[in-house]
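Quick one: structure for this chain?
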Amino acid sequence: MNARFWSVNRFLDFFVYLVGLYKYHFAMKTIYQVDAFTTEPFSGNPACVVIADANTSQEWMQNIAAEMNVSETAFVIPMKTGLTIRWFTPLAEVNLCGHATLSAAHILYETGYVKRGEELKFQSRSGELKIKKSGTWLTMDFPAYPLIPIEVPKEFEKITGVKPVELYSSINDWVLAFVNNEYIVRDAKPDFGAMRHSGMGHLMITAPSSETNFDFCVRCFAPSVGIDEDPVTGSAHCALTPFWYHKTGRTEFLSHQISKRSGILKVSMNGERVLISGQAVTVFKAELAF
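Got it. Here's what it folds into:
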């Protein structure tokens, strides 16, 4: 009787353990880190991707983005109406992020959530975003940003380290500075502290590329949202592509973002939209236990 009693209790303990393990396992979320706009790990722009759910709080997403401390973390949320995507820097939610969208699409195709020949659609703060995969390349259909010529502020050169030939404002607080050659872009040494509250805290500097393989080069800085220099910036090309289209009359370009990590983007005008293509590589995946 006693032996039987103890065996039943041990069975119940083991059952409770299994239930706890089951709940623990399914409470976990998977987080991926992807290097975007590159085929080589440790280059391009790193982004984190989390498949979340409709009950995931904004506070939790912001905490995860701060914990991962890359320029953006993308949260993909399956809804009854389709997939929603949100992007967070370590400091704030943003309206659009190219490299994190590319990274999220890469994970969804790589894991089989979306079939290779199927078009992927995200609902976002910037409307519907469509992505297609062809071979190793992912092409994102993004909005084209308007450009408004502006006068160069007196403190611009002191704050940013460059003297632009032309200066434009755009949406999402972007400012585009055009200079004559790539060396000026490479040598720029902005004062990030001064930029943060100057109205120039979301800045791209572009010039014709000095390399024959590329059409133009760019560097992007966004200290106003906690990113001193962004390694490769897909969303900036929503403004850069129309700019170079109006500058040259061409519709297709190969862009070289000349940050320390560097990245390559194929971009083209498509009516009122911009097509931005890139490649990506998964660096790691991990389980979140909360």
